[in-house]
């Protein structure tokens, strides 16, 4: 009898794809057709610190296409009707105090998405989860030294790759600036821009660690942690349906972006104003019609008035993949740009375009389209006009 049962289970595991995915799918009662009926899932993730949010992210996963995306939204994003009369209560972060459901409503209006679920994670839940997966290896981008007696919170981290436990991970994702006022570099993104970039990078590392086989087998422990610490309208039994297929997700395919916009001072209040057109384009690219690997812009869409051969481009690889460097260089050369230098740089999550010369807006917009990125900044003049730093998101 045991042989018959064992043979049947083995058959089911095989039909469900074999390996860890097949084992987990069988364990939760799936068959080979289950994934075909699993919809893409969207969730708003809110990181709670006292009565405010340090983290606001839209996360999406499509088990059928094996695509996942993360969008960071600045907590100071303006959601009022008149910027000239803006107050602190017109910031997205302020809505949090009226309930997560209201934040969800505002984010849906901002993005045009129909997000159904939210996860509100406090600092204790975050620390417990990181410890539960055995800590997370992460390259801390800079020395961090900050103290606040008001919140009785202290950040003391050294730059470099290290395994962060829950306490140190909390320090990392909450850091904005040091006691002496120094913060992330301009190219990285100062203050909140840098913090959200670090948060996205750490989330990627945390997911990667969580998806290790030894941690996926702790699913019941994670659900227990969530039930104890996390406020949500999502049924965690629903989450179980997606776990088997996450085992096949390639983390290098995770797309992470930042809401396009700019910080501005209006009516004595600092707010973050989203760019309406760029936000709509980004939402379409990131969530509604994710770009296909290897996709290139067609020649008929290139601006005929740009003299690309006169623009000197430097390409620096911020990933460990030489093929990504070759792909970007080929894409630029096929479009007619003059790539004069290539090389490697420190690891980075996001692809960035640095304008080092008098390069017009048309060129900048075309490069952003070619490379599927919204991240562009001004840099010091060098022997090139444009520096492109390739991130893991490409």
Topology (elements, then pairings):
Blueprint: H1 2-15, H2 19-27, E1 41-49, E2 52-62, E3 67-72, H3 92-95, H4 100-111, E4 117-122, H5 123-132, E5 136-140, E6 144-148, E7 153-157, E8 160-164, H6 166-174, H7 191-210, H8 213-216, H9 219-229, E9 231-232, H10 236-246, E10 255-258, E11 261-266, E12 269-274, H11 276-288, E13 312-317, H12 322-335, E14 338-344, E15 352-355, H13 361-371, E16 376-378, E17 386-390
Write down the overall mean pLDDT.
80
Q: Tell me, what is the CATH class of the largest domain?
A: Alpha Beta
Secondary-structure-derived class: alpha/beta
Q: Based on the structure given, which CATH architecture of the largest domain is correct?
A: 3-Layer(aba) Sandwich
What is CATH's topology name of the largest domain?
A: Aminopeptidase
Count up the domains: 3
Low-confidence sequence ranges: 1-20, 292-300
CATH homology superfamily of the largest domain? LCP protein
Query: If strands are numbered along the chain, what order do they take across the biggest sheet?
Result: 9-4-1-2-3-10
What is the strand content? Answer: 15-25%
**N-to-C order of helices and strands:** HHEEEHHEHEEEEHHHHEHEEEHEHEEHEE
How many strand units?
17
Distance between the termini: 52 Å
Using only C-alpha atoms, the radius of gyration works out to 22 Å
Helix content percent band: 25-40%
Basic shape: globular
The total count of helices amounts to 13
Give a quick account of the main beta sheet: strands, pairing sense, barrel closure: 6 strands, mixed
